Amino acid sequence: MANLNLDNEKDNTYDVIVIGSGMSGGWAAKEFAEKGLRTLVIERGREVKHNVNYPTTNLNPWEFKHRGVISQKLRDENPIASRCYVFNEDAEHFVSKDKEHPYVQEKPFDWIKGYQTGGKSLLWARQTQRWSQYDFDGPGRDGFAVEWPIGYRDLAPWYSYVEKFVGIAGNYDGLDILPDGEFLPGMGLNCIEEHFKSSVEKNYSGRHVISGRCAHITEYRDIFAKQGRATCQYRNLCQRGCPFGGYFSSNSSTLPWAMNTGNLTMIHHSVVHSIIYDDKKQKAKGVRVIDSLNKEDKEYYASIIFVNAGALNTNLILLNSTSGRFPQGLGNDNGLLGKFIAFHNYRATVSAEYDGYTDKHTTGREPTTSYLPRFRNVKKQETDFLRGYAAGFGARRQIITDYNGYGEELKENLLNPKYGVWQMRSHMMGETIPKESNQVKLDLSKTDDWGIPLLSIDVDYDENDEKMVRDYHEQFTEMFEKAGFSNIKTHDSKQAPGLDIHEMGGVRMGKDPKTSLLNKWNQMHACKNVYVTDGACMTSTSTQNPSLTYMALTARACDHAIKESKV
Amino acid sequence: MDRRRALVNLGIISGGLVLFPSCEFSKEKATIALNNLEINASQENLLKEIIASIIPNGEIPGAIELKVDEFVWVMLDDCFSKEGQQDFLKGLNSFNDVVDKIRGKSFHKLLEEERSTVLKSIEEGDQFDEKDKVGEFLRTLKQLCVFGFMQSEFIMTEVMPYSLVPGKYGTCETIDPEKRINVNG
Fold first, then answer.
1. What is the DSSP code string of A113-177?
2. How far apart (Å, rounded) are the C-alpha atoms in residues A429 and A418?
3. H/E stretch holding A555
4. CA-to-CA distance for B18 and B37, rounded, in angstroms?
5. Cβ of A67 and B168 within 8 Å?
6. pLDDT grade, residue B132 (50/70/90)?
7. 3-state secondary structure of A64
8. Largest Cα–Cα distance in chain A?
């Protein structure tokens, strides 16, 4: 019996275990496998192979039974997932259903999950703006959360490293507030967006309009061909999985790359219960996994463990990893694990119309957006709220169909629509301030299908967020007015936190083990062979879409782990 | 935009009362196989007739030729709340009574032009008893009909072509005033 266990232990031992195969887990898999480490990636969901398991990717609109509309049954069963913008007939199979993993909402929180190979990297909005030093300076300068242990200079080479492999379309804008990266040709602004850009830059100093940098291949490079990826075809159907590999996902890029090295093993339907801590060796020795299909327990072992389960699930795993040494969860000596959760405020929008450029329109479909980097409180405190917001926006030529009449009249109307004015719509991406009261913890009274306590989420907006919404509404109204737009309308969806799908923190980086969980290399202060490089590690959120930063942090942490393991 | 509007409209269909099946309808089974609803051949035929009048056949095929009637039933069956389904069927079942009240004969016996007029007056009119749900039924049916017609293969390939692989994004193209405006372009 003892021998059998030993054999089992030997069979289940790897150099590295990566928990999660999404945006950051895929990068960990690639980095380690490429460097020759035997790597195990544990994915809780089902397998989704690039171009094999994209069932809707080549369907025309009329080939969908309900032309994109979600059935009443699915909507009734999934009130949370239904609020997600990609939860339509073409991609609902990549959004986890509400009953698949319940959680407790102390306050309303829409937790959107993608339990499959590649996680939410299949579904993301692909915006990839770098952080600048001004973003890293936030908490230190403004006195919230804790100081970041790293700055732009630490991350810049890793941004470049990641961008060259991912493929980022963008223009060299030369802005200190939003550093340039390794760009392929940008996707460009349409005439109204160009018009808005010149108006904003004429009327305001420190405000800029750019074409949003995005993870789409716009020009051939060998490195993309080696990944089996081709240039973006402007289908803008990314959420279905792209047959061209035109946008970046773990499925199309990092995971097959890692698999080709022969060093990657991937298991699916495997829910991580906890990380096993070895009290004698004073480090983590492996991972306890529950097979989600047959509910059997299994253990896997490795000397390096990367936790990339997605921000909140990473918190859940660490909180559930209790031991004699760590009764409150792995590495949680200071009791701060699960606290200082933050997110992005996406509640506010402003729409407007422009009566001009009447002989122009756009053709094809644009998979990115125009972008206005943060201009509030960038270099010094200027307003009565902390930090600021970036905004995405886009313009399109309105086509008006007259739905009046019946019979021949209606048919004529339907087949002969007319051009209307240009319509512009902007959405806010606000920085929220990480606070101790915004937290997640385990609800020990309730367990999921695998006997794991449910995560209880207690996260809300505060007065700073309300002020920022008002300021965004005012500033965009003013900018649109100055650019000659009319019919300007502000809107606040009041959507719950979570629907931004940018939840971050709980296992934050910092300089001091007393006030943070991770050091500057994303290593747990108190358990050095465990690294956290997904959204959970974020000390503050700034305003940029975070995936690019997770990828850069992951590549950097992998490099550190590999170097340290060789010492 | 059409799809989004249809989505919104589908979502706001209000709750209703109880469905009173009309005894006029035969028990003959409908030809379309649905998952949830049970409908009979009379309902199927009447709906077909109304749809044929909403978007008639012609040089460009109409709703019936493009099988929009089947699409309407599928949407009603799968994408509507129970209340929405009941209201829709109630409106359908009362439809001929209301037409009879306005024109003194059933829909079937009206000429094409008369049909358009009566549909318009039902859509706009509030002179009918709210309980019969006919106005609401017709407005919902029209939305579904337009949605199914515009999103049909024929319209999206022959009239306003949808390109699955556009290949490029034109940021600022000059409009050709001679060309039909393509809502899918």
1. ---BTTGGGGT---B-PPP-HHHHTHHHHHT-S---S--HHHHHHHHHHHHHHH-EE-----BTT
2. 33
3. helix A547-566
4. 15
5. no
6. confident
7. coil
8. 83
Contact B162, A61 (CB under 8 A): yes
* B-contacting residues in A 216-255 (Cβ below 8 Å): 233-235, 237
- What is the pLDDT, as a whole number, of residue A565? 87
pLDDT of residue B13: 33
- Please state, in angstroms and rounded to a whole number, the distance separating the CA atoms of residues A21 and A44: 9
- A234 → closest Cβ in B60, B166, B185: B166
Residue A298, both tokens: 């299994």
Structural contact between residues A517 and A322, judged by C-beta atoms closer than 8 angstroms: no
Q: Closest Cα partner for A276 from A264, A288, A268, A266?
A: A288
DSSP A270: E
DSSP state of B152: S
Interface probe, candidates B3, B140, B147, B164, chain A, greatest A C-beta count within 10 A: B164
E strand intervals along A209-368: 210-211, 264-267, 270-278, 283-291, 297-307, 339-342, 344-345, 348-354, 360-363
- Tokens coding A42: 């544990």
Bridge-based pairing state of the strands A297-307 and A283-291? antiparallel
Instruction: Supply the DSSP symbol for A46.
Output: B
* SS3 of residue A536 by DSSP: helix
Q: What is the ipTM of this complex?
A: 0.92
pLDDT value for A119 = 98
Q: Tell me: pLDDT of B2 over 50.
A: no
**Chain B interface includes A205 (CB < 8 A):** no
Structure tokens at B37: 């609803």
Report pLDDT for B128: 61
Structure tokens at A262: 């022969």
Taking CB atoms and an 8 Å limit, are A415 and B165 in contact across chains? no
Give residue-wise pLDDT tens across range A211-268.
Answer: 999 999 999 999 999 999 999 999 999 999 999 999 999 999 999 999 999 999 999 9
Is the predicted pLDDT of residue B111 greater than 80, yes or no? yes
- Distance, in Å, from the CA atom of A44 to the CA atom of A116, rounded to the nearest integer, reads 7
pLDDT in tens, B75-95: 999 999 999 999 999 999 999
| Residue B29 confidence (pLDDT) | 81
CA dihedral of A492, A493, A499, A501, whole degrees rounded to 10: -30
**Number of neighbours of residue A356 by Cβ within 10 angstroms:** 13
Contacts of B159 in chain A (CB under 8 A): 415
pLDDT at residue B125, as a whole number: 76
- Joined together, the tokens standing for residue B171 give 């940021």
Specify the pLDDT at position B26. 54
What average pLDDT does range B147-164 have in this prediction?
Answer: 97
Q: Are A498 and A341 in contact (CB under 8 A)?
A: no
Q: Is A144 left (phi over 0), alpha (psi -120 to 50) or beta?
A: beta
The half-sphere exposure of B142 on its side-chain side, counting CA atoms within 13 A, is 23
Q: What is the separation of C-alpha A393 from the centre of its chain, rounded to a whole number of angstroms?
A: 19
Residue B89 phi/psi, 5° resolution?
-70, -35
Q: Look at residue A517 and tell me whether its pLDDT is greater than 90.
A: yes
Q: Please state at what angle helix B82-103 crosses helix B134-150, rounded to 10 degrees.
A: 110
Calculate mean pLDDT across residues A321-349: 98
List C-alpha distances in Å: A223 to A121, A143, A226, A549, A558.
20, 43, 5, 21, 20
